[in-house]
Amino acid sequence: MSAHMTKSAFLESLLQLMDNKHHWAWDHFASGRLTHTQLKIHFQQEYAVYVRDFPIFLARILGKNPPSSARHMLAENIYEEETGGLSLGTSHPELFLTMMEGLRFSRNSFERFHLLPEARSYRAWLDRMSYHRDWVLGAATFTIFVEGSVKDRTELTAPSKKKQPKEIEALINIHPLVRYHGLNPNRMDLIRAHQLVEAGHRHDAYHMVVNYTPPAIRPSVLTCLRKSLALWLTYRDAVAKSCGITKPS
Questions:
Q1: DSSP letters spanning 90-142
Q2: How many helices and strands, by DSSP H and E, does the chain display?
Q3: Taking Cα atoms as reference points, which of 8, 11, 16, 235 lies closest to residue 126?
Q4: What GO MF annotations does this protein's record show (predicted)?
Q5: Is residue 62 part of a domain?
Q6: Could you read off the pLDDT of 43-81 as tens digits, one per residue?
Q7: Burial class for 166, CB neighbours closer than 10 Å (0-12, 13-18, 19+)
Q8: Residue 58 structural domain
Q9: How far is the CA of 224 from the CAs of 12, 31, 58, 151, 212, in angstroms?
Q10: How many domains does the chain divide into?
Q11: The model's pTM
């Protein structure tokens, strides 16, 4: 029966899954309701779980020798993440730390801290998927789930156009970290880099996964992404609890 799942049905199943990548506490992190200490907890966990090592995850998948066009996309993604060579010339993990310094968080505080048990579980799953013998399962986990968001369906329906510098600066000026937490826009090069390279990025990820996943393992890809979602939601619950954010009844 799995062999009869069409590409269009597979794509729709992926999008339905991503429609649910939203956490109840996310609005707290996108507003001015968090204290400086709460922000630090959030960013420390994100950095250790996937931000710091994202280029490494992708390199493991590339090492499984996928087809040429998939290698090209993964290599381009690694190049940007590790060097910033397609945008601002600095790696994304480094740009993240620069942003953190702008929030008055020291670099050392991102090397030595307590990783929540739920964060360790999610991170262990990401490591496992990056090493998976079927490269497309790892690619789906990282390029669809980790890099994607609840906005993926909209992005595929109406892809973002490449933004002009003035448009990027306007977005930065209304970013929650600038508006509510006093972050100097000069420290927001991570956001600038994302905006410079993201046009069409989601479409490329879905095109790769949908077209290179053999029909027989499409259900396996969906199973992996469902587990990714479950672990991510549990991880975000733990971050919210650590920040003292109570779930609405």
A1: S-HHHHHHHHHHHTT--SGGGTSSPPPHHHHHHHHHHHHHHT-SSHHHHHIII
A2: 14, 0
A3: 235
A4: oxidoreductase activity
A5: yes
A6: 999 999 999 999 999 999 999 999 999 999 999 999 999
A7: exposed
A8: 2-242
A9: 16, 31, 17, 20, 16
A10: 1
A11: 0.95
